[in-house]
Design a protein that fits this description.
The chain is α+β, with helices and mostly antiparallel strands and 354 residues long. The chain is 27% helix and 13% strand. It has a three-stranded antiparallel beta sheet with strand order 2-1-3. The chain has a two-stranded antiparallel sheet with strand order 4-5. A two-stranded antiparallel sheet has the order 6-11. β9 and β10 form a beta hairpin. E3 ubiquitin-protein ligase which is a component of the N-end rule pathway. Recognizes and binds to proteins bearing specific N-terminal residues that are destabilizing according to the N-end rule, leading to their ubiquitination and subsequent degradation.
Length: 354
């Protein structure tokens, strides 16, 4: 099981996944390239603690080229509606052919489903920089202890006492924790204003200096106060970057996280931002996309290079012809137009190699 990785659902191998929940399955990036090339794939972005299903119990008719023997069932995998190509509380595909509203989608940090901003039942943050993560309304109800923190992370005065992190809740009237999560995918991520440990001493971006000395006997979860201006009302919650380190880590709260299956909230390596930063460090950021692409192309054998350049030239030629129509007719090119173009191109490619 990989802490966080990019996943795909193959509808060519498991077409029943669109309508049968028990048929949902996911494959890793490597298998999407090696075992499912030219197949109809759903890009699921990233999921946590998942093990590839290619050639496993849920895809028994598929033989994995990378690991032929996969007899053990992936019982720890979790499959939400995304694996069937559906998203949000509206249970619609993305992009939705019947929805002409241009609306950003954002991923919930807990259930990892994707939601339209307009379906979150809350006011949208002014900008993506105002938050880093989001918890959907459903997950706020199934994990009610998060409501205690709404507003408090932004407003509570935090101090360090004998190197033990404490949350001073005295003198607080009506405030609670505001949380925000960004999407990765992009649907990825930013940060709102949140309560800090002592802005003059401990930067928000950094955890407490001596995290090992955090007391496990003192509960620092703020009391739930209802009705205040910044208390939790309903719907989704948006959280600033670094909000997780303000969650109480006492033994009682630790059992609470375990009971609800959200221990990952205390793991700084679980965030999409950490995943993306590791990816940048691993692949490097030097040079333009073109330069990096040419460098990778140079590592392939000559036959593959010729095939790729031929396909690239064919694609650019077709795309130029496609866009010329819009210039001639003085029309605006939309996202749906581009998606339709590449869907048609992929279909032709699959048919030509069948």
């Amino acid at each position: 099981y990989v802490g966080r990785q990019a996943l795909y659902a193959c509808l060519t191998c498991v077409p029943e996944a669109r309508g049968v929940e028990s048929k949902r399955s996911g494959i890793c990036l490597a298998c999407s390239l090696q075992c499912h090339d030219n197949h109809e794939l759903l890009e699921l972005y990233t999921k946590r603690n998942f093990r590839c299903d290619c050639g496993g119990k849920r895809m028994s008719d598929v033989k994995c080229k990378l690991e032929p023997r996969k007899e053990e069932e992936n019982s720890r995998n979790r499959y939400n509606q995304n694996f069937s190509g559906l998203y949000c509380v509206c249970h619609r595909p993305y992009p939705d052919p019947d929805d002409d509203v241009d609306d950003e989608m954002i991923q919930c940090v807990v259930c990892e489903d994707w939601y339209h901003m307009r379906h979150l039942d809350v006011d949208e943050p002014k900008s993506a920089k105002d938050y880093a993560e989001m918890v959907c309304a459903g997950c706020m109800e199934t994990n009610p202890f998060l409501k205690n923190y709404v507003g408090k992370i932004e407003d509570t005065n935090k101090t360090t006492l004998d190197d033990t992190v404490q949350v001073d809740v005295t003198g607080l009237d009506e405030s609670n924790v505001a949380a925000t999560e960004a999407d990765p995918d992009t649907a990825g991520p930013s940060e709102p204003k949140q309560r800090r440990l002592d802005d003059s001493k401990v930067p928000v971006e950094e955890p407490p200096k001596d995290k090992a000395t955090v007391s496990l006997d003192i509960c620092t979860m703020p009391p739930l106060v209802e009705g205040g201006e910044k208390s939790y009302k309903k719907g989704a919650s948006f959280w600033i970057e670094g909000w997780r380190k303000f969650l109480c880590q006492c033994k009682t709260c630790g059992e609470l996280y375990k009971k609800h299956g959200v221990e990952f909230l205390l793991n700084e390596k679980d965030t999409v931002k950490h995943y993306e930063e590791v990816g940048k460090q691993k692949h490097g950021t030097a040079g333009s996309s073109y330069e990096r692409g040419m460098q990778m192309l140079g590592q392939l054998d000559q036959v593959t290079q010729v095939d790729m350049l031929t396909e690239y030239n064919r694609m650019t030629s077709r795309l130029r012809e496609f866009l010329d129509q819009f210039v001639t007719n003085q029309q605006v090119v939309t996202r749906d137009d581009i998606n339709e173009f590449f869907a048609k191109l992929n279909k032709e490619r699959r048919e030509s190699t069948a």
